[in-house]
From TrEMBL:
InterPro entries: Cyt_P450 (IPR001128), Cyt_P450_E_grp-IV (IPR002403), Cyt_P450_sf (IPR036396), Cytochrome_P450_Monoox (IPR050196)
UniProt cross-references to SUPFAM superfamilies, sorted A to Z: Cytochrome P450
Pfam families associated with the record: p450
Protein name stated in the entry: Putative cytochrome P450
Domain of life according to the entry: Bacteria
Record bears the keyword Metal-binding: yes
Species lineage: Bacteria, Pseudomonadati, Pseudomonadota, Alphaproteobacteria, Rhodobacterales
UniProtKB keywords: Heme, Iron, Metal-binding, Monooxygenase, Oxidoreductase
Sequence similarity: Belongs to the cytochrome P450 family.
Membrane spanning stretches: none
Gene Ontology MF, one: iron ion binding
Length: 452
């Protein structure tokens, strides 16, 4: 069978570099189809894979793709640089086994600590919302919630949320620097100011947790530290703990609470949907009810992740020639799988750019073209965890408060900007108002009428 030549979209200009990959990818695939090579420089092409067929091939042939991007810094490579790989050193093999066994032994307890942290974080979020009609910046609210919902289970309850928030920003800054600087600038990454800030945050947070914890404390660091031999030096102990702690943070933390932010932005523009979510919580504690018992809240969260996926673009390198449809992507090519494109494609979604909170009440019809976290077994674990986190928070907020975008919110601020994740372009002021009993009763009746 004759294969077609992959079309090329030339984005090697100041104009296209300024408008960013979101618009470039949309323009390129609109002009040339689902598979297109975007020329970003004289020596580099990115192959956009913007259809469910591409994802299905990836899922079934993951050995044909690698995450190590060679001269291009991949997230996996950057993570190794930041966390170190001391635990993989053969001289620490016994400690590696002890650490892995301890992680398995406390897995159920750790899940419980995370659930407690999530409930406490959500209570704190709701308690700290302004009660006087003053607008609050949703970026700050969601960022602090995301830290409180995970970090106590890792570092212990004695947290300085502002310090952790700055540290997480420093980590993001290192990833951004490594993915945007040229090879000469990043050749000695440990000399970069961004690396020093990110590594310094992690080491300080782990060291503080070690000093403030006892072996019986319900947090990850306290428990993993119990299996590291006492004669291991403080510096080695830190190097051995950092990879485990860092990977757990990567798996569990929704950076900046951005997935919650984008869902709340939509709910703040649809008061009836927020009221209906409140009504489905009637008679239940939203902090303890099953996610299946708040299907509209769960559907709204999934819809938020459709429009604003956690990973809008996912980079891989082909390890051999990859045949997809009528094309063959060459070996050694940088492939960009694009949930951002698939999730907004009118071939697969009705009114794709419109937020419809009830879209995922019938979930089965969307599974084939929905990839907010990517694909793979490990991805499913993170997806389940994040969906529960976000659903619990969204329904709890809606049950306690109505919410509306402030009239002063510039509309451009709630258009996404791609950095390492999708961020708002500026402040997102939202006004929260406690739901009174009469309003909740009216919401309940409206919801009951709508579901008859």
């Amino acid at each position: 069978m004759t294969r077609k030549e992959i079309p090329i979209f030339d984005a090697n200009s100041t104009m296209f570099q300024n408008i960013g990959l979101l618009k470039v990818a949309e323009t390129a695939t609109r002009q040339h189809g689902d598979i297109v090579a975007i020329r970003v420089s004289d020596t580099r092409d990115l192959y956009i894979a913007g259809s469910p067929e591409c994802f299905h091939y990836w899922r079934g042939h993951q050995g044909h793709f690698q995450t190590d991007l060679g001269d291009i810094a991949s997230n996996q490579a950057i993570t190794r640089m930041l966390l170190g790989d001391e635990l993989q050193d053969p001289r620490w093999s016994d400690v590696w086994v002890l650490t892995a066994n301890r992680m398995s032994a406390i897995a159920r307890d750790f899940d419980g600590w995370l659930e407690t942290a999530l409930a406490d974080a959500t209570r704190t979020l709701i308690a700290e919302l302004p009660q006087d009609g003053t607008a609050a910046d949703l970026r700050d609210i969601c960022r602090d919630w995301s830290i409180r919902a995970v970090c106590p289970a890792i570092f212990g309850a004695d947290l300085d949320v502002a310090e952790i928030a700055q540290g997480v920003a420093d980590v993001e800054g290192f990833y951004f620097a490594m993915s945007t600087k040229d090879a000469a600038e990043t050749a000695d990454h440990e000399t970069l100011a961004e690396f020093k800030a990110a590594r310094g945050f992690l080491d300080k947070a782990i060291t503080t947790a070690l000093r403030n914890s006892t072996p019986s404390d319900p947090n990850l660091i306290a428990q993993i530290a119990t299996v590291i031999p006492q004669d291991v030096s403080e510096a080695d102990r830190l190097n051995l703990l950092r990879p485990t702690v860092g990977h757990v943070i990567t798996e569990k933390l929704n950076i900046g609470g951005l997935s919650l932010l984008w869902t709340l932005v939509q709910l703040a523009q649809d008061p009836q949907l927020a009221a209906d979510i409140s009504a489905e919580c009637h008679g239940n504690d939203p902090l303890t009810m099953r996610d299946a018992d708040s299907p509209l809240a769960l559907s709204s969260v999934k819809e938020g992740l459709r429009l604003f996926p956690e990973l809008p673009f996912i980079y891989r390198i082909t390890s051999e020639e990859v045949p997809i449809g009528d094309y063959v992507i060459p070996s050694g090519a940088t492939v960009v799988f694009a949930p951002w494109l698939v999730h907004r494609d009118p071939r697969f979604w009705e009114s794709p750019k419109r937020f419809q909170g009830d879209r995922f009440l019938d979930e089965a019809q969307h599974r084939a073209h929905y990839y907010p976290f990517g694909v793979g077994a490990r991805i499913r674990s993170r997806a389940n965890f994040m969906l529960h986190q976000l659903t619990l928070a969204a329904r709890s907020i809606c049950a306690a408060h109505s919410l509306a975008l402030s009239p002063d919110c510039p509309r451009g601020n709630i258009r996404p900007l791609l950095r390492s994740a999708l961020i708002p372009r500026g402040v997102v002021p939202v006004v929260f108002a406690p739901r009174d009993a009469s309003a909740m009763a009216a919401d309940d009746q409206s919801f009951a009428d709508a579901t008859q």
